[in-house]
């Protein structure tokens, strides 16, 4: 009975983990989508800053100074967007597909093994019950045979009258 409880507890734990994995897919997909969007916006924003032309000489010189000051920011943003895309978003996208496949396969394998184990337990339980019934039946037969072996050809009253 304790094995059955342990199997049930482990099966329940496995199902909780599988449900958590399945429930986390939308969160990870949202994270990947928003990360890609951030990377795209940062890339677009750096192009706009660099390509903004000025109409007058003052605006042009101010933009030149601003561009000079922001070149380090631009290079850092490019590094950041590249790292974000190559180091986080793309690998997560690839891993998510793998996670889905692995989780699905784990779920299928677990269901198959669980059904097999449950069928084995049922079979062994029914076999045990059958053996218990046979054993009880065998005890009755043994008792009848014992009565026959120890039965006397006459009763006690007949012996007294002899």
UniProtKB/TrEMBL annotation:
GO terms for cellular component: actin cytoskeleton; cytoplasmic side of plasma membrane. GO terms for biological process: cell projection assembly; plasma membrane organization. Residues 1-162 form the IMD domain. It comes from the Eukaryota. GO terms for molecular function: actin binding; phospholipid binding. Gene3D superfamilies: Arfaptin homology (AH) domain/BAR domain. This is IMD domain-containing protein. It comes from Gasterosteus aculeatus aculeatus (three-spined stickleback). The lineage of its organism: Eukaryota, Metazoa, Chordata, Craniata, Vertebrata.
């Amino acid at each position: 009975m304790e094995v059955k409880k342990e199997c049930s507890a482990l099966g329940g734990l496995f199902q909780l983990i599988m449900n958590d994995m399945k429930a986390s897919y939308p969160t990870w997909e949202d994270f990947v989508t928003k990360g890609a969007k951030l990377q795209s916006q940062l890339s677009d924003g750096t192009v706009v800053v660099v390509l903004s032309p000025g109409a007058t000489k003052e605006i042009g010189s101010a933009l030149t100074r601003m561009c000079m000051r922001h070149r380090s920011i631009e290079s850092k943003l490019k590094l950041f967007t590249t790292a974000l895309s190559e180091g986080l978003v793309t690998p997560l996208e690839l891993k998510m597909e793998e996670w889905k496949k692995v989780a699905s396969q784990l779920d299928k394998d677990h269901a198959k093994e669980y059904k097999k184990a449950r069928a084995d337990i049922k079979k062994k339980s029914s076999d045990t019950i059958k053996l218990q019934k046979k054993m009880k039946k065998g005890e009755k037969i043994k008792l009848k045979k014992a009565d026959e072996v120890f039965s006397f050809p006459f009763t006690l009253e007949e012996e007294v009258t002899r």
